[in-house]
C-alpha cells in the first residue's frame, strides 16, 4: 500500500467511525474537513472503499430512505450505497490512531492525524506533535543553509520565494510549540488535580484540558471548515518546500 492510499484509508475509517455515509457524502467530508484530500477523485476513493470492504473493515448497505431508492429505481439508477464501519474496522482505526512513527510527521499524514486528535490519546498526540516539530526544525536548518549558500547567485524574486518558504516553516514551528505547551499544561493540571492516594484526577474535563481533548461530537454545524476536536486551531498550511 502506498503512503497516500494509507492516509486515505485512515481518514475514511475515521470519518465512518462518526457515522455511516454514502460515497458522495464521504468525499464531501474529505474535501471540507480534511483539506489535504481536495485533490482526491472518485476514481481514488471507490477503490479504497472496495478494499476496506474486502478486508472486512466496512460493510455496504442500501440507502435507508425509501423515496431515494424509489427515485433511483424509476430513473434506472442504482440506489446509493451506504458504508458502515464494522467492529474490525473500529479496531483497525484504533491501531492506526496509535501510530507515532516518522510517517505521521510528514505533511499530508500529519494533517490527517491532526484532524482526529480529538479521538487520540494525549501521549500519542504529544509524540506526533514533537516528531512533527523535530522534522520541521531539521527542514528549516537545511533551508537556511541553502539560502546562505545560494543567495549571491539568485535574483530577488527567487530569494523572496525562499524567504517565504522559511517563514512558512517558522510559523508552523511556532504553532506546534504552542500546541505542545498546551498539551503539557493540560497534563500538569490534571496531575495537580489528582487524588494523592489514587493518582487519578478528580475531573478529567477541568479547565486544564487541551483543545485536542474535545471529540468530534463537540463540533457544531458551522464547523465544517475546521478540524474535529480543534475548533479555532486550524493548522497552517503544511510546507512542501523542495529545499528539505
Largest sheet properties: 3 strands, antiparallel
Low-confidence stretches: 195-209, 212-233
Strand line-up of the largest beta sheet: 1-3-2
Cα gyration radius (Å): 21 Å
Strand fraction equals under 5%
Coarse morphology: globular
Fraction in helix = 55-70%
Write up this protein.
The structure is a single chain. This protein is mainly alpha-helical. The protein is built from eight helices and three strands, in the order αβααβαβαααα. It has helices at 3-18, 23-33, 42-54, 66-74, 87-97, 107-115, 122-150, 156-192; strands at 21-22, 58-62, 81-85. Strands 1-3-2 form a three-stranded antiparallel sheet. The longest helix has 37 residues, at 156-192.
Which helices and strands, and how do they pair?
Layout: H1 3-18, E1 21-22, H2 23-33, H3 42-54, E2 58-62, H4 66-74, E3 81-85, H5 87-97, H6 107-115, H7 122-150, H8 156-192
Helix pairs in contact: 1-3, 1-5, 1-6, 7-8
Short description:
This protein is mainly alpha-helical and 244 residues long.
List keywords for this structure.
single chain; 244 residues; mainly alpha; 8 helices; 5% strand; globular
